[in-house]
Design brief:
The chain is of the alpha/beta class and about 260 residues long. The chain has a domain of about 150 residues: Rossmann fold (3-Layer(aba) Sandwich). The chain has nine helices and twelve strands. Helix 6 runs parallel beside helix 7. The model has no long low-confidence stretch (mean pLDDT about 90).
């Protein structure tokens, strides 16, 4: 992918592939292009060059909602939750369920149905919420993160992008969020994870893609690499870092190809 902001070349042919049921981590120093790449792939930004393929079919999202219609969701670092609404309402924010009949035509929400579905959705992901009707402001940081992840999972059927999902969380909360990430992948959804936390990356990811100065410079199987190798690839201190063929067997769910 290619993306420019004036004279700044944010992406210079960054490319990678991700498959269903796979957790792929994108790592790199600040300014490497991680968030820009995810914003392009999720429809927030339009690329200046290159091609996105979803299940082998070229796509060009007109915006985030268009990406959502294609089964692609994003969990942003700020979570984008409505703090005064409860967990169930946040789960269906912008996609509320309406009551049947004339009440639905009048736009009356079916709150009991949304709460029932929210309880089911949270339970499937192992998210522990005692009361889905409690305002999000009363939840812990890890619980709020889990609500944002559950909202994405409820509507994504292909790809979920997660931008620093464990940032500013405690040890226990981070562990629970990472467990949720693995549960999402176990459902056959591709998870693309941006993180600066190397130990967490190696503990949860199947594959690690390293970006530097807007390009993908290395790809590692998480189980076969070390933090030292990852840091070396990020900083350029490794001479010719390996480009392992590490994608899982099967059709790629999302591909970002280098611009011409």
């Amino acid at each position: 992918m290619v993306k420019r902001f004036g004279h700044v070349q944010a992406l210079q042919g960054a490319d990678f592939t991700a498959c269903p049921g796979e957790v792929v981590a994108l790592i790199g120093d600040n300014g490497a292009g991680k968030s820009t790449l995810v914003n392009v792939l999720s429809g927030v930004l339009a690329p200046d060059g290159g091609e996105v393929r979803l299940e082998g079919v070229p796509v060009r999202f007109s915006g985030p909602m268009d990406a959502q219609r294609h089964g692609v969701e994003t969990v942003y670092q700020d979570l984008s939750l409505a703090p005064d609404l409860d967990a169930a309402a946040n789960l269906y924010l912008g996609r509320e369920m309406l009551r049947g009949g004339v009440w639905g035509r009048l736009g009356v929400l079916d709150r009991p149905a949304m709460r029932r579905e929210a309880v089911r959705a949270f339970a499937e992901l192992g998210v522990e919420l005692k009361d889905v009707t409690a305002p999000v402001t009363t939840l812990s940081g890890g619980q709020r993160q889990s609500v944002a992840v559950a909202r994405a999972v409820a509507f994504a059927n292909k790809v979920i992008f997660m931008d620093e999902p464990t940032a500013a969380l405690g040890v226990v909360q981070r562990s629970r969020v990472l467990e949720t990430v693995r549960r999402v992948a176990d459902r056959g959804i591709c998870v693309v994870l941006i993180s600066h936390n190397m130990p967490e990356v190696l503990s949860v990811a199947d594959r690690v893609e390293v970006l530097r100065l807007g390009r993908r410079v290395a790809s590692f199987t998480a189980a076969d690499t070390t933090i030292e190798e990852l840091v070396g690839a990020m900083t350029g201190s490794l001479d010719g870092p390996p480009q392992h063929d590490t994608a899982r067997t099967g059709p790629a769910v999302t591909e970002a190809e280098e611009g011409r």
